[in-house]
Amino acid sequence: MQSSTPLAKLSRPRLTRTVPRSRLFSRLDVMRKLSIVWVSGPPGVGKTALLASYLDQCNAAGVWYRVDAGDADPWSFFGLLAQTLESDASVPMAPINCEQTSDITSFARQFFRSFFARSSARSVIVLDNFERAPNLASLLRQALEEIPAGMSILVASRAGPPSVLARYVAHGQIGISRRADGTPAGSL
Predict the structure, then answer these.
(1) Most confident listed range (75-84, 97-106, 117-126, 151-160)
(2) Which residues contact 24 (CB under 8 A, 6 or more apart)?
(3) Which of 133, 146, 59 is nearest to 107 (CA)?
(4) Contact criterion met (CB below 8 Å) for 47 and 39
């Protein structure tokens, strides 16, 4: 059951005095045609502010999820992500019961099918501070397999995509900013 006051970790940050970044917003618009957009860079460069101001600018519906060390437990991650959905949606969610489900990969696949089916067609999921629970990368791989066209996942992290996502980077399903010389950039 969803509470009337959302948890801070599930709330988009409130911005004050941010400068619109038209060039970067345009790049995000293009990159959002891919399943995942990965924004990486050192602390304090404005990854969170960029994504929050971008979503504000384009009035995008979606979920903001602040990853923390507690998300190392995938069942906690699934439970909190499920809280972001409307409680009256017609598509049932897979029940989350870690004692009965030993195959996390199969569960993740079913969870993301249900989650995306219940999400609006043009919605966005933001995973902020992804580096705080790197084990989520294997779950993100399952999300990539199930995400429908038109929806996107925006990841803000201090590091680039982990090696378990290399195949998706190579196949162009994860958008990463690149410098003119072809090497990965630190951020958009």
Answers:
(1) 151-160
(2) 50, 54, 188
(3) 146
(4) yes
Which domains does the chain possess? 20-83+103-176 (3.40.50.300)
The reported pLDDT for the residue numbered 181 is 42
Query: What is the C-alpha to C-alpha distance for residues 9 and 12, in angstroms, rounded to an integer?
Result: 8
How far is residue 134 from each of residues 25, 48, 57, 122, measured CA to CA in Å? 26, 18, 29, 26
Instruction: Give the residue carrying structure tokens 């429908």.
Output: 148
pLDDT of residue 99: 60
Residue 128: what residue type?
Answer: D
Helix (H), strand (E), coil (C) string for the chain:
CCCCCCCHHHCCCCCCCCCCCHHHHHHHHHHCCCCEEEEECCCCCCHHHHHHHHHHHCCCCEEEEECCHHHHCHHHHHHHHHHCCCCCCCCCCCCCCCCCCCCHHHHHHHHHHHHHHHCCCCCEEEEECHHHCCCHHHHHHHHHHHCCCCCEEEEEECCCCCHHHHHHHHCCCEEECECCCCCECCCC
Beta bridge pairs of residue 184: 178
Dist CA 28 CA 30 (whole Å): 5
Kindly state the average pLDDT of the residues 92-97. Answer: 61
Looking at this protein, which amino acid is placed at residue 96?
A: I
Task: Report the percentage of the chain scoring pLDDT > 90.
Answer: 51
